[in-house]
Design brief:
By secondary structure, the protein is mostly beta strands. Helix content is 1%, strand content 46%. The protein folds into two domains: 169 residues, Jelly Rolls (Sandwich); 168 residues, Jelly Rolls (Sandwich), CATH 2.60.120. The strands form three sheets. Strands 2, 3, 4, 5, 6, 7, 8, 9, 10, 11, 12, 13 and 14 form a 13-stranded antiparallel β-sheet that branches. Strands 1, 15, 17, 20, 22, 24 and 25 form a seven-stranded antiparallel β-sheet that branches.
Amino acid sequence: MTFVPLIMYFPEIISLSNFSQGNGTIDLTGEKYGWTGTVWWKDRSVTSRDIRRARFLFGTVTKASGSALTFSLQNFDLANGPPGRPDGTQDQTVAIANADAGFASNTYYTTGNLSADRTVAFGEQLCAVLEYDGAGRLGADTVGVIHGGTFSTQNNQDGPVLLTASWATLQAPNGIVFEFADGEIGLLSQACPLSNSTTSLNVNTGSTPDEVALAFTPTFKCKIDGLCAVLAGSTTANFDLVLYEGTTVLRTVTVDAQTLRSTTGAPLIMGIAEVELTPSTTYYIAVKPSTANNVSVRYFDTNTNAIMQLMPGDSQCYYATRTDGGAWSAVTDTRRPLIGVRLSAIDDGSGGGGGGLAANPLGGFIV
């Protein structure tokens, strides 16, 4: 067994920055919300699949005047970018009727079947578009689409775009999921497919629960030298970041809120003495308040565990809590707190140690 030094964050939390709900709104005829990126799924042995439906999260919707929508798959426009944008040709479509009960504010929506399945290769560039149908926007109707996370376009070239007067990028990851004809699902990179509004949990020394953690079970041999979290709190909301094996403390780092760059939410990375993690062992990285003042821990939800397993990170990275040093709750396997570790070394699999790299569904670690 040989450890290879590296610096990576696991799961990917750093590029999401201050994780907060974003919303793109179309409220005039001709306006469009688009998703742009490359198609991914978990099983790399399958080289192509047929897209049949899509899922996404509506934001604020007003449809009192009867507006209806068209969802379509499109190619990239190869003549008029950047920003990368759909070409305007609706290749495969599905109607969203005004009377559709799922077409409503803050509702996780699954479209009907497209007019035809679309065959795509793994990693193929693709756009999806939501717009008013041929009748246009009626009255004062508006349609919002939610995307989670906020980051600069420098973090990734893929992501949602909005057409108002002209196409513009939205500083967020894509929030769309594809359903394939074979029953599998996939994402459009870079992705954070929320199933409801983003939220936070406030914890303090007197709250129930009083610790929020990422529960994770590594499938590979590695070492870590840092604990990370995206959180917010007042200047007096001190806390600890704690690494547990089960309920046994392995590392603790104390954070004085006066040292934070921002109290409104940003990634925090604290160094610890390097520790080796064992495959198939469950660890918890917890935010543990040390005062009666609230620390706000950010998290997001996906619609199914299968979607969670397509997110960056290993296949078992979930939300857990506990109170007063008791037992950890059962994990919520469709929820992930923005908590993680900094990897400092990974087993290269040599020497008969049974190691090797993790099989990340999105193709490796993303820093």
